[in-house]
Amino acid sequence: MNEILKTKKTRSLLKESIEYFGKEKQILKTIEELSELIRALSRYLVEDYEVLLDYEQTINNRDEEMADCYIMLEQLEMIFQNKTSIKNHIQEKLELLEYKINQ
Question: Residue 90's domain spans which residues?
Fold first, then answer.
């Protein structure tokens, strides 16, 4: 899915966004989007789907907020230029996860 975020066109757009809005604003926007995802996930977990009239809207909101976060996290990687570090941390986290599952 985030292969869309790796295209040349998208990378260029994200770079333009950082230049247009500024690094600090994009960092703050990331915080905002992450908090919106937290709210969407909380709503998803606590809603009583038997009485929920807007189930599709809840699901759509969850997915939309996830998409926003993917975009903003990609911009953070561009701002901090820490792709290698992130890759290393992901590998470590995946190894730890595998260890926990296989224990």
Answer: 4-102
